[in-house]
Amino acid sequence: MFDWHEALQTLLHLSVAFTLTGIIGWNREQEQHNLGIRAFPIVGVASCGYLLLMHRAPFDTGDLSRVLQGMITGIGFVGGGAIVKEGATAHGTATAASVWCAGAIGAAVALDHYPTAIVLTLLTMVALRVLLPIKTKLDGQRQKSTD
Length: 147
Fold this sequence. Notes:
Layout: H1 4-30, H2 39-56, H3 61-80, E1 84-86, E2 89-91, H4 93-110, H5 114-130, H6 132-146
Antiparallel strand pairs: 1-2
């Protein structure tokens, strides 16, 4: 029998995961990175969805742990695709780390750890936006020292 309450709860979880990870995706899109407004919410919603399936079914914690471990590895693989090596430097590492964090945000939402999901989103945005000018300055100093 269809459970409307469960359907609404699922919609709420997936919507929150979509929104929180969409914020990060929007940032990456504005910065014109190869993963952005579409990829981040998909990672967040998929992570949330997988754990909701496990969380609501009669599985034990070991099963849930194995799904989570597989997700962490898989999302790391997806993020690794964002890293591009050019000579002695690598680009895309912040995007790769952010997509990994998007998976953690989706997982936190699925497990009803909303404060964790919100703090992860905020800290990721701080790292991407607030720390960017510092990174740019440090990169400039490094460039000057090698010239």
